Amino acid sequence: xxxxxxxxxxxxxxxxxxxxxxxxxxxxxxxxxxxxxxxxxxxxxxxxxxxxxxxxxxxxxxxxxxxxxxxxxxxxxxxxxxxxxxxxxxxxxxxxxxxxxxxxxxxxxxxxxxxxxxxxxxxxxxxxxxxxxxxxxxxxxxxxxxxxxxxxxxxxxxxxxxxxxxxxxxxxxxxxxxxxxxxxx
Length: 185
Known about the structure:
mainly alpha; 7 helices; three-stranded antiparallel β-sheet
């Protein structure tokens, strides 16, 4: 991967190899599918905003932390020490958080050439990329049980360790994210 570079007027550009683009599209797509509510595409939208809010607030389980550890990491409780306040907060904010994550992922999919090549991002698209890459890293980190000592884990992992390839992907995503942050700075 050619690292992200600043472009005049804001934003960034980079070049991704076909395998890198394919990997990134796959991972972002998986996270997007995970955070989309079930039946997201099949739901009928209510006619007015009040009806939409009412449906969201009274949806069964709308106030519960997801059981899936990855979803729980991506959609954390707003109040760790107060389950009632956390549930109330979640009821009113989770749909918006999910929608934002889906929109960021869709931006990556829309701006990343399927077969790799030049990526040119405006400032808003670059911010969406940062959010989507962060979500992928959170998901992988949760699955791998990555802690603050992950650099040591990466150095000590042998190729016989089944996690080694995933640790390398996690590390590469950190490089992509860091490269984009530096280009925007």
